[in-house]
Every structure is written in structure tokens, then in C-alpha cells.
Specification:
The protein has 146 residues and is mainly α. It has 8 helices and no strands.
Length: 146
């Protein structure tokens, strides 16, 4: 359970972050999205500072063009909520990394992690992520994860 939870968190965090790398359709926007797409999922998932990851996503969401701005905000808000929930429970990036190595967290931290992951796995977040992924594919010629 611990390893699968960690894997799910890493995937949702990386996927949400990459899907949110939108912009005004400009070359700069697409360049930023490509740069983030070139970053491996493990590098994002292994970040000790989840707040910095959320901040980076926020900056990119700020540049989202009008047609995907709402989707970018949904992802930004969800990621920030994810990070805040974990921080309030005392779970940081290092704790998540420890889980993948067999480490343990408290029952309260497990409940917070479950709540945070559930928020990222909502239908609203999935829809927003799909919309941004489509935009990146069609407007920037970027296929996430490739």
C-alpha cells in the first residue's frame, strides 16, 4: 500500500504539473512546456520541496492563454491544496521519498495523504488535465511524457 500510494502521488503530481505547463500559445509558453516535459517524472516526484513545485506550476499557470486558463487554475488550485494538506500533516517531499524506500508515516499523515491524493484524482482535475494536454498537443506539438 505504501509504495503504491507513493507511486500514485508521484504520478499525479508530475502529470498535473506537466499538463499545466500552458501559456499564451506563444513560443515562450511552448518552450516552457517543453522544458518541463523534458524533466523526468522522477526528478519532479523526488523534489524535497513540494511547495516549490507548486510555485513553479503557479507561475506557468499564470501564463496560460484564455482558452485554457480555467483548466490551468483548476490544476494550480488542486496542486496547492495537495501541498497545503500534506504540509499541515507534516508530510514533505522527503517523507514521500522515504515511503518509496519502505519508510513509514503516522496514521494521521496517511489520512492526509489519502485526502490529498483524492483531491488530485477528482473528475474536475482529470478534465482540466485532459484539456491542457490536448492544448499542448495541438498548439505546441508537445506530447506529455515523450
Amino acid at each position: 500500500m505504501r509504495t503504491s500510494t507513493t507511486t500514485m502521488v508521484a504520478t499525479l503530481l508530475a502529470g498535473g504539473l506537466l499538463a499545466g505547463c500552458g501559456g499564451s500559445g506563444s513560443d515562450d509558453f511552448c518552450d516552457e512546456a517543453q522544458s518541463l516535459n523534458d524533466t523526468s517524472f522522477s526528478q519532479i516526484a523526488e523534489s524535497d520541496d513540494l511547495g516549490a513545485v507548486a510555485d513553479q506550476f503557479g507561475e506557468l499557470a499564470d501564463a496560460a492563454p484564455g482558452e485554457i486558463e480555467d483548466s490551468a487554475r483548476v490544476l494550480q488550485d488542486s496542486l496547492q491544496e495537495f501541498v497545503t494538506t500534506l504540509e499541515e500533516a507534516g508530510v514533505d517531499g522527503a517523507s514521500l521519498q522515504d515511503l518509496s524506500g519502505g519508510g513509514e508515516i503516522t496514521e494521521e499523515q496517511t489520512a492526509a495523504l489519502t485526502e490529498a491524493v483524492s483531491a488530485l484524482a477528482s473528475e474536475e482535475v482529470e478534465t482540466a488535465s485532459n484539456e491542457l494536454e490536448t492544448y499542448l498537443d495541438e498548439e505546441c506539438d508537445i506530447q506529455l511524457g515523450s
